[in-house]
Design a protein that fits this description.
It holds the Pfam family DM9. It contains one helix and 27 strands. It is mostly beta strands.
C-alpha cells in the first residue's frame, strides 16, 4: 500500500512518534525481539502513557505497562512471536482505558488490560532496543477497522461493498425482522462511517443518524466473521469489541443490537453518548442496555 509508513529503528530505545488518535494501530515489524510501542497523549514520553513490549525478555513474553513503572499491568507468554528474518503483523486497539493487542489475522487479543483512567491517546511511538533493531511497516489509521474486499486493519474484519439489498456470500446475519435475516453493514453518511442494518427485501440498508432512520443504497457488509454478541451497557467498550466505523468527529463507533417491537435490530454504539442507536420505523432510537459485537 503506497501510503504505508516504512522505516527502521536502531538499538537505542528511543521512540519515534507519529500522530494517531484513531483508537487503532495496524503494523508489521521485523525484529529478533523487543518491539516496543508507546501510546501517548503527546509526541514524547510523558505521564500518563502506556507502553507495549512485544517479544521482550529474549522473545519469550509480551507486556503492557503504564508510566514506565513496575510492576507491569498485564503480561502473556509469547515465545518466538517476533522474527529477525521476516515481518510479523500485529494490531493494537484502545478505547476508554481498554487496550487490546493481537496478531494480524486474529480476532481476539493475546494481551489486554483495562485502566480506570481514560487517557486521551493522540500519538503512537515505536522503537527497538536491548540488542535489537527493527524494520517497521505502519498502515494508515483506520478507525473503521477494515477494508472493502477483505483483509483490513485491527482485527481483520472483512467488509465487502454491495448495494440494492444484495448480500455477499458469507454475509454476517446479526438480527431478525419479521422472520427475515438482518445483516451487519456500515455506510458513509454525512461525513461519518456508520454501522447499521441491511434488510434484503427492502432493497437497501439503514443507518441511524440525526434522529432518523436513513436509507442507503450503497453499503459494506460484514462477511466471514466468527464473532459473538455480549451483553453490555453504557459507554464502556470491551477491548475485543469490533470497531465498525467512526462519527463525523472521528470518534470510533461499534456494532450493537437490541430487541425492539419484536425485531432484533442492529445499529451503532457511540461510547461518548453511552448508548446504542438503532434505525427503526423512520427514527433513530437509543438504548442504554444492548448487546455488542465482539471477536
Amino acid at each position: 500500500m503506497s501510503n504505508n509508513i516504512e522505516f527502521a529503528t536502531e538499538d537505542k530505545l528511543e521512540y519515534c512518534f507519529f500522530p494517531n488518535a484513531s483508537g487503532c494501530l495496524q503494523f508489521r515489524v521485523k525484529a529478533p525481539h523487543d518491539a516496543h510501542i508507546a501510546l501517548s497523549p503527546e509526541a514524547g514520553e510523558v505521564d500518563p502513557m502506556y507502553e507495549i513490549f512485544i517479544g521482550g525478555w529474549g522473545n519469550t513474553k509480551s507486556i503492557i505497562r503504564k508510566n514506565r513503572t513496575k510492576p507491569d499491568v498485564a503480561e502473556a507468554p509469547t515465545p518466538n512471536i517476533l522474527s529477525g528474518d521476516e515481518f510479523r503483523g500485529f494490531w493494537i486497539r484502545w478505547n476508554n482505558g481498554q487496550i487490546g493487542v493481537g496478531r494480524e489475522g486474529d480476532f481476539s487479543p493475546f494481551l489486554s488490560w483495562t485502566d480506570s483512567e481514560r487517557v486521551n491517546i493522540e500519538y503512537v511511538g515505536v522503537c527497538t532496543g536491548w540488542g535489537s533493531s527493527g524494520n517497521w511497516i505502519i498502515q494508515p489509521a483506520a478507525p473503521g477497522g477494515g477494508s472493502s474486499g477483505g483483509g483490513g486493519a485491527c482485527g481483520a474484519q472483512c467488509w465487502v461493498a454491495s448495494s440494492g439489498g444484495a448480500v455477499p456470500p458469507s454475509g454476517f446475519a446479526g438480527g431478525e425482522d419479521n422472520g427475515e435475516s438482518v445483516y451487519v453493514v456500515r455506510a458513509n453518511y454525512n461525513g461519518a462511517l456508520i454501522p447499521g442494518k441491511l434488510v434484503p427485501s427492502h432493497g437497501q440498508a439503514y443507518v441511524p443518524w440525526g434522529g432518523a432512520e436513513n436509507p442507503v443504497q450503497e453499503y459494506e457488509v460484514l462477511c466471514d466473521f466468527p464473532g459473538q454478541w455480549l451483553a453490555n451497557s453504557g459507554g464502556n467498550i470491551p477491548a475485543n469489541a469490533v470497531p465498525g466505523g467512526q462519527s463525523e468527529d472521528g470518534e470510533p463507533l461499534y456494532i450493537g443490537r437490541t430487541v425492539h417491537d419484536g425485531c432484533l435490530t442492529i445499529g451503532k454504539i457511540q461510547p461518548s453518548h453511552g448508548v446504542l442507536y438503532i434505525p427503526y420505523g423512520g427514527q433513530e432510537l437509543s438504548f442504554s442496555d444492548y448487546e455488542i459485537l465482539c471477536s
